[in-house]
Amino acid sequence: MMDKLYNPMLMKEMKLRFRSFKSFSGLLFYLAVLCIFITGFVLIATDFKGHGYIEPTMSYGLFVLLSIVQMALVMFITPGVTAGAISSEREKQTLNILLTTTQSSAQLIIGKLLSSIAFIVLMLVAGLPIYSLVFLFGGVSPSQMITTFAFYFVTLVAIGSIGIFFSTITKKTIVAMIATYGAMIFLGAITAFLFFVSMIMTQSGVAPIVGGYLAYLFAAINPGALIITLTTPELTQVFQEMTGVTLPVWITYLAFYSTITVCCLTGAIKKLRTNMKTQR
Amino acid sequence: MIEITGLTKRYGDFYALNDLHLTLGDGVVFGFVGANGAGKSTTFSILATLLSPTSGDALINGKSVVREPAAVRKEIGYMPDFFGVYDQLKVDEYLDFYGASYNLKASERKKLIPELLALVNLTDKRYEYVDLLSRGMKQRLCLARALIHDPNVLILDEPASGLDPRARVEMRDIIHRLKDLGKTVLISSHILPELAEMCDEIGVIDNGTLIAHGNVAQIQAELQGDAHIFVELSYGLEEARAFFERNPLVSAMFVDHAAMQLQFSFSGTKVEQTELLREAMLADLAITSFTEQKKDLEDVFMAITKGADLA
To answer: Which residues are in the ABC transporter domain (chain B) (predicted)?
Structure first.
C-alpha cells in the first residue's frame, strides 16, 4: 500500500529542498518580513511608547494587513520555488535520465508540484505563531483565519502550476522565472489597475453595465481583492452594489484559479515528453 | 534482441539519421562508431524513447519505441553522453530514488543497491555525497543506475568519454562483466580502437548513414583497401622502380632516395603479392626488406568516413 502511494520524485525533492541553504534562508526571510510588519504595526498602534492598548478593531486591521502581506509573499515566493522545477533538471542534465524511467509524466509533474507546495505550506505553518498574535488582542474568528489560509492554498497551487508549466515549456530557468513573475504582475497589479479603470467607466456612466461586469471580473481574479472581500464583509456589500454582480467574489476566484491549475498541469504533463510524439 | 528498420530522423532537409537497418541478438556488445554529429546520439535517443523518429521503427525485445515507449523503458537502461547528478543526495539515496522510479519495492531496492555498488566497485562510497565522487566514479554510478531495474538492453552513449586511462580500463572491465551477465549492450564512441577492445560487433555511421557493420576483423578486412608496400634496397633504386612500375597492380609509387626505399599501393591478392616478390628476387633486385604496412583501426576509420564524405 505504501509503495503504491510513494512518489519518488516528491521524496527526492523534499530531501534536496530541505538540505539546501536556500530553503533555510527563504524561510528566514519570510518570517523576518512578517515580524517587521507586526512590530511596525504594534509600534504605530502604541504611539511608539512601548506600552498602551490595542482595540479589537485595530487588531482586526492587523489581521487584514497580515493577510494581504502573506498573500503578497505567497505570490512572490511561489514562482521562485516552482519556476525552476523542470528547467533546472534540464539545465543540470538530469531530465533525460528521468524521462527514460518508468515514471509517468503526470507522476513527475505532480511530484514536483507537491514538493514545492509542501515547502510553501511549511512557510505558512511556520508563520502561524506570528500570525496568531492577532488572537491575543481579539476581534478575529478562527473560521476567518481558516478561510484565509484555504485561499492561500488555492492560490499557491495555481501559481505553482503556472510556474511548473513555464518551467516545462521553456529551456532556461531564468526565462520560466520571468514568465511566471510576469503572470504574477498581471494577476496582482494589472488586474487591480484594470479594476479601477472599469470602476471609473461605471461611475462616469460611459458603460455602466459592462464596466460593472469588468470591474467584478478583474476584482475576482485579483488575490488582493479576494483577501479584502474575505476579511471585510461590509466592503463586499458595497462592491456588489457598485458592480451590480451579486455572485460572491470567492466563488469566481475559486473557479478561475482551479481552471488555471488544471490547464497548466495538463499542459505541463503533455509538454514534458514533447519530443516523443507519436508518428503521423 | 533489437531490430531497427528504416529508422530515419530528419530536421527540415537535414538527415540526422537516414534509413538505419540493424539487428542485434541477445548478449551482443555492439559498438557504434562515428565522428561527432554522425548520428550516434540521435539513434540512441530514439532507442531510449527520448526522441521520435521521422519514419521507421525499432523493436526492443519485441516492443516498439514508437508505439509502446512506456514498455520499452522497462527493457532498457540508458546512460547519456552528458549527464548531471543530484549533488545533495548520497550514493545510496541516488540509487534508491531511481529504483523507486522504476517501481521497485523498498525491500528490493535495499537488497539491490549493495549488489550494484559492488558490480561497479563503489561499495566504499555508498554513504558519500554524489558530488564528492570523481568523474569516473560518477560514470560508474550512472551505469549502476541504468542497471537498477535489471534491463536486458543497455544503451551507453560515450561511456568512456572524458575518463582517464585507469577509469577507461575499469569501465571496459564492467562492460565485459555485463556481457557475461547476458546483457545486450550498445556503446557509442568516436574512437574505433577503444570500441574494438570490448565489442563483438561494430557499426560505423557517418552523416546519418550506416556505412559498415560486422565484427572488428571483418570491418578491417572489408575496409582495408589496397595494400601499402614498403621495399628497401641496398642499391639499384631506379632499376627496382622501373621493375615495379611495369606491374599493372602497382600504383602511387613514391621513391625515397635518402632511405633507399620505395613505397607503393598494390591492389592484388596475397598470392599476387607473393608472386611479385618472387619475380623481383628473380630479377636480381637488391631487396633487403619487403613489407606490407597494416592500417590500424584509426586509419581505417579515417579512410572510410572520409570516403563517405566525398560520396
So the answer is: 2-232
